[in-house]
Design a protein that fits this description.
The complex is a heterodimer. Chain A is α/β, with parallel strands linked by helices. Chain A is built from 15 helices and 11 strands. Chain A has helices at about 10-15, 25-35, 50-60, 105-110, 155-160, 175-185, 215-225, 270-285, 300-315, 335-345, 350-360, 370-390, 415-420, 425-430, 460-475, and strands at about 45, 70-75, 115-120, 165-170, 185-190, 210-215, 255-260, 290-295, 395-400, 435-440, 445-455. In chain A, β10 and β11 (about 445-455) form a beta hairpin. In chain A, α7 runs antiparallel to α15 (about 460-475). Chain A is globular. The two termini of chain A are about 25 Å apart. Chain B is mainly alpha-helical. Chain B contains 3 helices and no strands. Classes of the chains: A alpha/beta, B mainly alpha.
């Protein structure tokens, strides 16, 4: 048997079910490695002591029929966890201890998993490099001083660095797929309405979705099966027939039609990304699928649309942080002064910037020119996909326009930071599922990902395509343990 | 289009985020470069396009109007920065 922390979720579940490993063995191993990995700064809060107690309790009376029997895992600190501090990476929530549990984490614990701790992320999930967190930036296990991507940067770093076998992140414009791509792991952004948003700290409510991040496609499918559920507590949760994603997983994708959108070839995109894409096209053909050139003509309008819609929704959602009901409060001379100082001292620069953009585009006299315009363009972007899906079953694109960049490289230029999400944002705007799988390395040895976009509710199909491609790609992540002394 | 300091002060007031002079200047620069980028949308003619207001094209489910959470005052107050056990406390608003 290989070292515990190197095992996939599927292997760990099997070994626990066959009593070759106990939950205590597994939990101890991931805690040990997490403790040695402080330099990655992947955790905001750990819950190691109670994790071990829970593991021991599980071993005394193991329920081996559950899907995640005694499996330890850490989650992004955007999910409310009952009685455990939940910060969203922000100073303004630094003392917030939820009195309730998010539905997706509840689903996970109901299947036997054990919480290891809460993972670092960009403040309120606003960022593409995990540099906006109040708790400091996260290091990538791929290389020193390299960003892990964002906003689920702590999650990506923790899975790639083997601090947790699996995790969940959230994806508003690429926050699962981009960090997955940067760190050589698999990340799925489900269809809007597939996973409940109840108990997730809100960023942009019409775009936010929770999703699984894992070392491979099979693990990702299993975790997705656990977290996806209809939830009356989220009015946008959708009651549709969900698959047994892991059981129904197949590498048979013969005859599938896969669209290749020409608009995803952008100016200044490194040749390595184009080459990777071509390789991907060859892989799906080798699997017996057919590729078809398609057009998504409004692709270049997706990012400007996103930077109206997302900040507008964020400015409304974040109005609740007023220093009254929970969170940080600054001293003020009167009520208004208290609000203004609390929000000025409690929010970081990027969050303030987005609240201001959102407030401006919703303000009197500008609403039609910006917000209404963006909603109309969003419709055009969705129409593009609807049109494409008359001809194809799924769409293959690169996940990001480049590999991971250095810490500090893009912090002074918000627009160049935003451009990172150029291939992932259209998927959120159209409410579709998308998965990023590791597909190769660039000349520096950094991972590169490919994205498969599906029809709404067609997660099984994109998981299958990803599964078939994964077998052909045979990607090996280069983790040197550079951070372990 | 250009966002000047006066506009920044106005947005700052609407968002209830106080900003000093230096921060306001930085924000004006950032917002101008972001809005330059957003202006790209004006290339598109959208007069006859219906705005997308809901991404999930389903009808909302109805449920019976029942109280599910009772007697949770303590839980609700628990995280407040200042309370007197029964209420949220804010700076005095009436002289």
């Amino acid at each position: 048997m290989s070292e515990i922390t190197k095992q996939s979720l599927t292997e760990l579940v099997e070994n626990i079910k066959n009593k070759k490993l106990s939950s205590t063995d597994v939990t101890k191993a991931f805690i040990d490695r997490s403790e040695k990995s402080e330099e990655l700064n992947a955790y905001i809060t750990n819950d190691f002591t109670s994790a071990l107690e829970k593991a021991k309790k599980f071993d005394q009376k193991p329920n081996l029929d559950s899907k995640l029997p005694g499996i330890p895992m850490a989650v992004k600190d955007l999910f409310c966890t009952k009685d455990i501090k939940t910060t969203a990476g922000s100073k303004i929530l630094n003392n917030f201890v939820p009195t309730y549990e998010s539905t997706v984490t509840e689903n996970i614990w109901n299947e036997g998993a054990i919480l290891l701790g809460k993972l670092n992320c960009d403040e309120f999930a606003m960022g593409s490099s995990n540099e906006t967190s109040f708790f400091g930036n996260v290091q990538s296990p791929i290389d020193r001083n390299l960003v892990p991507g964002g906003s689920s940067g702590g999650s990506a770093s923790a899975v790639a660095g083997q601090l947790t076998p699996i995790t969940i992140g959230t994806d508003t414009g690429g926050s699962i797929r981009q960090p997955a791509s940067f760190t050589g792991i698999v990340g799925l952004k489900p269809t809007y309405g597939s996973c409940s948003r109840y108990g997730i700290v809100a960023f942009a409510s019409s775009l936010d979705q929770a999703g699984p991040m894992a070392q491979n496609v099979k693990d990702c499918a299993l975790l997705h099966e656990v977290i996806s559920s209809y939830d009356p507590k989220d009015s946008t949760s959708i009651d549709f027939k969900r698959n047994h994603y892991s059981k129904e997983l197949t590498n048979n994708i013969k005859g599938k039609k896969i669209g290749i959108p020409k608009e995803y070839r952008v100016d200044g995109m490194p040749k390595e990304i184009e080459d990777l894409w071509q390789k991907g096209i060859q892989y799906v053909k080798d699997c017996g699928a057919e590729t078809i050139d398609i057009s998504l003509p409004n692709t270049s309008y997706a990012l400007p649309t996103y930077y109206i819609v997302a900040p507008a929704e964020a400015s409304s959602n974040l109005a609740r942080y007023d220093g009254v009901k929970y969170g940080f409060r600054a001293k003020g001379e009167n009520l208004i002064d208290m609000y203004e100082k609390t929000r000025s001292e409690g929010f970081g620069a990027e969050v303030q910037r987005r609240i201001m953009i959102g407030t401006y585009v919703l303000s009197s006299g500008y609403y039609d020119a910006y917000y209404l315009k963006a909603q109309k363009v969003r419709k055009l972007i969705k129409n593009d996909f609807d049109e494409a899906y008359k001809k194809v079953d799924a769409i293959l694109t690169p996940s990001t326009p480049s590999s991971a960049f250095k810490i500090g490289e893009k912090t002074n230029d918000p627009v160049s930071m935003y451009l990172n999400d150029i291939f992932t944002v259209p998927v959120n705007l159209a409410g579709l599922p998308g998965i990023s799988i590791p597909a190769g390395h660039d000349s520096k040895g950094y991972p590169l990902g490919l994205q498969i976009i599906g029809k709404a509710f067609d997660e099984q199909n994109i998981l299958n395509i990803a599964y078939a491609m994964e077998e052909k790609i045979n990607f090996k992540n280069k983790i040197t343990d550079w951070w372990i002394k | 289009m250009s966002i000047d300091l006066k506009t920044i002060k106005h947005i700052s007031k609407l968002s209830r985020i106080s900003v000093d002079e230096q921060r306001a200047k930085k924000l004006a620069g950032d917002l101008n470069s972001i809005f330059d980028f957003i202006e790209k949308l004006n290339e598109l003619k959208t007069d006859n396009v219906e705005p997308l207001t809901s991404i999930a094209e389903t009808t909302l489910k109805l449920r019976s109007d029942e109280v599910k959470s009772k007697n949770i005052r303590e839980q609700i107050i628990k995280n407040s920065p200042q309370d007197n056990e029964d209420y949220f406390v804010v700076p005095k608003v009436i002289e």
